[in-house]
Design a protein that fits this description.
380 residues; alpha+beta; GMP Synthetase, Chain A, domain 3; Thrombin, subunit H; 3 domains; 7-stranded antiparallel sheet; 6-stranded antiparallel beta barrel; 7 helices; 32% strand; globular; serine-type endopeptidase activity; disulfide bond; Peptidase_S1_PA_chymotrypsin
Length: 380
């Protein structure tokens, strides 16, 4: 399969400092206007600017990365469908390189035909998912103070369990109780304390009941989808006016709000730079893909996908099947949109940290929500 060639290179903060210290007599060349860069017309200017701000990617490099991610997503789907020993995929965070893991060396040639770098591992993705599912009950019982989250990590071919210093013993006991092999689990010490991101302080997104605020996710048939923890079935909303037709939380974290006939539903996302990013589908991206999210508290921020099928222990209960990212978010951003280029990925669920110091944010995948309620995305 054809891979897009890189036209530019990302510039790190360290390299900028070096240049500033050794070549002070030379001014940096001015960046070309976006309308002069080939391919820029396919992406919203706000998206490219946010990727430069948050990921250090010049516009040319961001365009190459987004094009590569689209092609990699297609190969990822083929790999999952055709490889019996499929063990996951991920992208190199710097280079445009797709990795495919297989547990059977006999399938290496088939995987290489997809244009990927192949890694041979011990366990299939199905086996790891079985282990993760077995861990859900005992790790949930350990509580969020001990075990904030866990997920399947294709790069290590293990289930990664985030534990606090005080919770390590409880996590080890949960692994033993579940009958999961110890070498199939990686315990990572963390200080994160995930919380849902609904905000009871006034804002300008949509409001639930007496005034709690969340963010619209994506427009659908006759309403929008958002986070389930934002409101229960039957709750009413304003700005826009509507009603929660369905809501699932905990376990999942999604909801469907049907809005009144006077509202205009648009297949786009606010980029908080005076424009909108068109939504054109919901093809799942890969681990390592660059993504950006929109929310009514902190606006538009970018980062990368770290894992799929993460389980998070919130105070209200465990939520499974989430996308783990290093994109920042804050209270009030809940329910908001996560995009990979123009492809809808998820709805902001919760996380730890903030947009001043960074953090970890989890997202409810979009496609299961559409399937649960028989919905279609509004696209443009």
């Amino acid at each position: 399969m054809r891979w897009t060639q890189m036209r530019g290179m990302a510039v790190t903060a360290a390299s900028l400092t070096l240049v500033a210290g050794t070549l002070t007599a030379q001014a940096a060349p001015a960046a070309a206007p976006l309308d002069e860069i080939p391919g820029a017309e396919d992406y919203a200017p706000g998206l490219l600017r946010a990727m430069e701000r948050d990921l250090g990617m010049a516009a040319e490099r961001a365009i190459d990365r987004l094009e590569f991610q689209d092609e990699a997503a297609e190969s990822q789907e083929l790999a999952a469908e055709t490889l019996e020993s499929y063990a996951g995929t991920w992208l190199d965070p710097e280079k445009d390189e797709l990795f495919v893991a297989v547990a059977d060396p006999a399938e290496v040639a088939v995987a290489e035909a997809l244009g990927a770098t192949v890694v041979t591992v011990e366990r299939t993705a199905e086996e790891l998912e079985t282990f993760r599912a077995a861990l859900d009950a005992p790790l949930s019982a350990a509580g969020t103070e001990a075990v904030p989250s866990w997920y399947v990590d294709a790069t290590s071919n293990t289930v990664v369990v985030s534990v606090t210093e005080e919770g390590r013993a409880a996590a080890e006991a949960a692994v033993a109780a579940a009958g999961v092999p110890a070498d199939a689990v990686t315990l990572e010490t963390t200080t994160e304390a995930p919380r849902t991101l609904i905000d009871v302080v006034g804002g300008n997104a949509y409001y639930i009941g007496s005034g709690s605020r969340c963010s619209v996710g994506f427009a659908v048939n006759d309403g929008f989808i958002t986070a389930g923890h934002c409101g229960r079935t039957g709750a009413t909303t304003s700005s826009p006016n509507g009603t929660f037709v369905g809501s699932s939380f905990p376990g999942n974290d999604y909801a469907y709000v049907r809005v009144g006939s006077g509202n205009t539903l648009i297949g786009a996302v606010n980029n908080y730079s005076g424009g909108r990013v068109a939504v054109r589908g919901s093809q799942q991206a890969s681990v390592g893909a660059s993504v950006c999210r929109s929310g009514s508290t902190t606006g538009w921020h970018c980062g990368t996908i770290q894992a799929f099928n993460s389980t998070v222990n919130y105070a209200e209960g465990s939520v499974r099947g989430l996308i783990r990212t290093n994109v920042c978010a804050e209270p009030g951003d809940s329910g908001g949109s996560l995009l990979a280029g123009n492809q809808a990925q998820g709805l902001t669920s919760g996380g730890s940290g903030n947009c001043r110091t960074g953090g970890t944010t989890y997202f409810q995948p979009v496609n299961p929500v559409l399937s649960a309620y028989g919905l279609s995305l509004r696209t443009s």
